């Protein structure tokens, strides 16, 4: 459980996004926009007066912040923005993985009209197509190799998981 309700964790944001049926990245972006607006308002108000009065979300409590604390509050909010952005810039999201898994296998490997392809396993020299391709998933009847479109991309292009997902989603 997060100690500060004004700063929900990524998991709490993700849960809320599921409830309202909106993409996770959209929820993160809206939260970041809200915090940037809050920072802007705090800064503008701090220019007008010595002490800053902020109301909580409930509107009941008044919080008095002096000029020194204002800088600390803005710095703290900027760190929270960096925390929210951390997975979105370096990592991948569940939405990206789902999108990557929907990429048609025919864009990655050559599939014959019967739905068979030559095995991509380097330990198996396949002269005749022995790899079955169904539902964006492959299985080689000769050597037992299996995988989905992401694993195939990783194997063919010597990529790690994150790079393969970005490649498939053109991210």
Explain this structure.
A hairpin with a 5-residue loop joins β5 and β6. This protein has 2 domains: 10-90, no CATH class; 99-168, Alpha-Beta Complex (DNA Primase, Chain A), CATH 3.90.580. The strands form 2 sheets. Strands 3-4-5-6 form a 4-stranded antiparallel β-sheet. The protein contains 6 helices and 6 strands, in the order ααββααββββαα. The longest helix has 25 residues, at 24-48. It is α+β, with helices and mostly antiparallel strands. The protein starts with 9 loop residues before the first helix and ends with a helix. It has helices at 10-19, 24-48, 67-90, 94-101, 149-157, 161-168, and strands spanning 51-55, 62-66, 116-117, 131-134, 137-140, 146-148.
């Amino acid at each position: 459980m997060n100690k500060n309700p004004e700063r929900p964790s990524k998991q709490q944001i993700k849960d809320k996004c599921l409830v309202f049926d909106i993409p996770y990245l959209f929820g993160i972006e809206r939260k970041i926009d809200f915090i940037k607006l809050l920072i802007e308002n705090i800064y503008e108000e701090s220019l007008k007066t010595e002490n800053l009065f902020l109301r909580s979300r409930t509107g009941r409590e008044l919080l008095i912040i002096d000029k020194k604390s204002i800088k600390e509050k803005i710095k703290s909010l900027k760190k929270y923005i960096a925390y929210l952005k951390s997975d979105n810039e370096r990592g991948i999201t569940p939405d990206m993985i789902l999108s990557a898994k929907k990429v048609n296998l025919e864009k990655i490997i050559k599939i014959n009209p019967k739905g068979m392809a030559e095995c991509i396993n380097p330990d198996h020299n396949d002269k005749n197509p022995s790899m079955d391709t169904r539902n964006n998933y492959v299985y080689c009847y000769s050597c037992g190799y299996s995988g989905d479109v992401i694993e195939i991309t990783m194997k063919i292009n010597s990529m790690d998981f994150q790079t393969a997902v970005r490649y498939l989603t053109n991210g």
